[in-house]
Protein backbone atom coordinates (compact mmCIF):
# COMPACT_ATOMS: atom_id res chain seq x y z
CA UNK A 1 0.00 0.00 0.00
CA UNK A 2 1.13 3.60 0.28
CA UNK A 3 3.47 5.15 2.81
CA UNK A 4 4.75 8.68 3.15
CA UNK A 5 8.06 9.11 4.97
CA UNK A 6 9.55 12.60 5.14
CA UNK A 7 11.36 14.93 7.48
CA UNK A 8 8.82 17.76 7.85
CA UNK A 9 6.86 19.20 10.77
CA UNK A 10 4.54 16.61 12.37
CA UNK A 11 1.37 18.55 11.47
CA UNK A 12 2.42 18.73 7.81
CA UNK A 13 3.23 15.00 7.71
CA UNK A 14 -0.07 14.08 9.39
CA UNK A 15 -2.09 16.22 6.97
CA UNK A 16 -0.21 14.67 4.05
CA UNK A 17 -0.75 11.16 5.36
CA UNK A 18 -4.46 11.82 6.03
CA UNK A 19 -4.87 13.26 2.51
CA UNK A 20 -3.10 10.22 1.00
CA UNK A 21 -5.30 7.82 2.98
CA UNK A 22 -8.47 9.66 1.94
CA UNK A 23 -7.35 9.64 -1.70
CA UNK A 24 -6.54 5.92 -1.56
CA UNK A 25 -9.90 5.21 0.04
CA UNK A 26 -11.74 7.20 -2.65
CA UNK A 27 -9.92 5.31 -5.40
CA UNK A 28 -10.27 1.89 -3.76
CA UNK A 29 -13.89 2.22 -2.65
CA UNK A 30 -16.02 3.65 -5.46
CA UNK A 31 -19.73 3.64 -4.68
CA UNK A 32 -19.51 2.13 -1.17
CA UNK A 33 -21.16 5.07 0.59
CA UNK A 34 -24.85 4.16 0.72
CA UNK A 35 -27.56 6.16 2.44
CA UNK A 36 -27.85 3.58 5.23
CA UNK A 37 -24.17 3.46 6.18
CA UNK A 38 -22.52 5.16 9.14
CA UNK A 39 -19.51 7.41 9.22
CA UNK A 40 -17.13 5.91 11.79
CA UNK A 41 -13.71 7.21 12.80
CA UNK A 42 -10.89 5.62 14.77
CA UNK A 43 -8.33 7.36 16.98
CA UNK A 44 -5.48 5.10 18.10
CA UNK A 45 -1.91 4.62 19.32
CA UNK A 46 0.23 1.52 18.81
CA UNK A 47 3.81 0.28 18.91
CA UNK A 48 5.66 -2.77 17.68
CA UNK A 49 8.72 -4.40 16.16
CA UNK A 50 9.69 -6.64 13.26
CA UNK A 51 12.46 -9.05 12.32
CA UNK A 52 10.97 -11.03 9.39
CA UNK A 53 7.80 -11.33 11.51
CA UNK A 54 5.99 -8.06 12.24
CA UNK A 55 3.84 -7.46 15.32
CA UNK A 56 2.28 -4.32 16.81
CA UNK A 57 -0.41 -3.66 19.37
CA UNK A 58 -2.27 -0.74 20.82
CA UNK A 59 -5.65 0.68 21.67
CA UNK A 60 -8.11 3.21 20.36
CA UNK A 61 -11.64 4.55 20.31
CA UNK A 62 -14.18 4.40 17.49
CA UNK A 63 -16.88 7.08 17.19
CA UNK A 64 -19.76 6.77 14.70
CA UNK A 65 -22.15 9.33 13.24
CA UNK A 66 -25.11 7.75 15.11
CA UNK A 67 -23.51 8.71 18.46
CA UNK A 68 -22.18 5.25 19.35
CA UNK A 69 -18.60 4.79 20.46
CA UNK A 70 -16.46 1.82 21.43
CA UNK A 71 -13.03 1.36 23.02
CA UNK A 72 -10.99 -1.18 21.04
CA UNK A 73 -7.76 -3.16 21.09
CA UNK A 74 -5.64 -3.22 17.94
CA UNK A 75 -3.15 -5.88 16.80
CA UNK A 76 -1.19 -6.05 13.58
CA UNK A 77 0.64 -9.24 12.62
CA UNK A 78 2.36 -10.41 9.49
CA UNK A 79 5.51 -11.56 7.83
CA UNK A 80 7.78 -10.71 4.97
CA UNK A 81 11.15 -9.14 4.46
CA UNK A 82 10.98 -6.58 7.22
CA UNK A 83 13.02 -5.26 10.14
CA UNK A 84 12.37 -2.36 12.52
CA UNK A 85 10.80 -0.84 15.60
CA UNK A 86 8.10 1.82 15.59
CA UNK A 87 5.44 3.70 17.52
CA UNK A 88 2.39 5.55 16.16
CA UNK A 89 0.84 8.30 18.27
CA UNK A 90 -2.43 10.08 17.51
CA UNK A 91 -3.23 7.79 14.56
CA UNK A 92 -6.54 8.23 12.78
CA UNK A 93 -8.72 5.98 10.69
CA UNK A 94 -11.92 6.28 8.72
CA UNK A 95 -14.23 3.36 7.95
CA UNK A 96 -16.42 2.91 4.87
CA UNK A 97 -19.26 0.43 4.38
CA UNK A 98 -20.31 0.32 8.06
CA UNK A 99 -23.99 -0.35 8.83
CA UNK A 100 -23.58 -0.82 12.62
CA UNK A 101 -20.61 -0.17 14.92
CA UNK A 102 -19.94 -3.90 15.40
CA UNK A 103 -19.10 -4.13 11.66
CA UNK A 104 -15.70 -2.54 12.39
CA UNK A 105 -14.58 -5.49 14.56
CA UNK A 106 -12.51 -8.25 12.96
CA UNK A 107 -9.40 -8.71 10.82
CA UNK A 108 -8.50 -6.58 7.81
CA UNK A 109 -6.13 -7.75 5.06
CA UNK A 110 -2.97 -5.63 4.78
CA UNK A 111 0.03 -5.31 2.49
CA UNK A 112 2.65 -2.60 2.77
CA UNK A 113 6.05 -1.43 1.73
CA UNK A 114 7.80 0.78 4.26
CA UNK A 115 11.00 2.65 4.91
CA UNK A 116 11.48 5.27 7.55
CA UNK A 117 13.82 6.62 10.20
CA UNK A 118 13.24 8.85 13.21
CA UNK A 119 9.88 10.62 12.74
CA UNK A 120 7.78 9.44 9.80
CA UNK A 121 4.20 9.37 8.53
CA UNK A 122 2.16 6.56 7.09
CA UNK A 123 -1.11 6.09 5.20
CA UNK A 124 -2.70 2.75 4.39
CA UNK A 125 -6.04 1.37 3.17
CA UNK A 126 -7.26 -2.14 4.09
CA UNK A 127 -10.46 -4.18 3.71
CA UNK A 128 -12.59 -6.75 5.51
CA UNK A 129 -15.48 -7.83 3.27
CA UNK A 130 -17.70 -4.79 2.63
CA UNK A 131 -15.95 -2.69 5.30
CA UNK A 132 -12.79 -0.74 4.47
CA UNK A 133 -10.45 1.21 6.71
CA UNK A 134 -8.12 4.06 5.72
CA UNK A 135 -5.40 4.74 8.33
CA UNK A 136 -3.05 7.68 8.76
CA UNK A 137 -0.58 8.48 11.50
CA UNK A 138 2.78 9.82 12.51
CA UNK A 139 5.26 8.26 14.82
CA UNK A 140 8.83 7.47 15.73
CA UNK A 141 11.16 4.58 15.07
CA UNK A 142 12.84 2.96 12.12
CA UNK A 143 11.73 0.31 9.68
CA UNK A 144 12.55 -1.18 6.33
CA UNK A 145 10.87 -3.88 4.28
CA UNK A 146 7.77 -5.39 2.75
CA UNK A 147 5.12 -7.07 4.93
CA UNK A 148 1.81 -8.86 4.45
CA UNK A 149 -0.62 -9.76 7.19
CA UNK A 150 -3.67 -8.68 9.09
CA UNK A 151 -4.83 -5.75 11.20
CA UNK A 152 -7.30 -6.87 13.88
CA UNK A 153 -9.73 -4.71 15.86
CA UNK A 154 -11.37 -6.28 18.92
CA UNK A 155 -13.13 -5.18 22.12
What are the salient characteristics of this protein?
155 residues, four-stranded antiparallel beta sheet, 1 helix, 12% helix, 67% strand
What would your notes on this structure say?
This protein is mainly β. The protein is 12% helix and 67% strand. It has one helix and four strands. A four-stranded antiparallel beta sheet has the order 1-2-4-3. A hairpin with a 4-residue loop joins strand 1 (38-64) and strand 2. The longest helix has 19 residues, at 10-28. It is elongated. The two termini are 26 Å apart. Residues 1-35 form the signal peptide. Keywords: Signal.
Short structural description:
The protein has 155 residues and is mainly beta. It has one helix spanning 10-28, and strands spanning 38-64, 69-98, 106-128, 131-154.
The biggest beta sheet reads: 4 strands, antiparallel
Oligomeric state of this protein: single chain
Q: What gap, in angstroms, lies between the N and C termini?
A: 26 Å
Percent strand = over 45%
Overall outline: elongated
Q: What's the gyration radius in Å?
A: 15 Å
Compressed to H and E, one letter per element, the order equals HEEEE
State the helix count.
1
Residue share in helices? 10-25%
Please state the structural category.
mainly beta
Which strand order does the major sheet show? 1-2-4-3
> Average pLDDT, to the nearest integer?
77
Tally of strands: 4
Unreliable segments of 5+ consecutive residues: 1-8, 23-33
Amino acid sequence: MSQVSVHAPASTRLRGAAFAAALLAALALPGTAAADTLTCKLKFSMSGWSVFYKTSSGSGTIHCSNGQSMSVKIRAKGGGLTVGKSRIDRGTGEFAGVRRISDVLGSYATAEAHAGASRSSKAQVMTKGEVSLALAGTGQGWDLGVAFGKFTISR
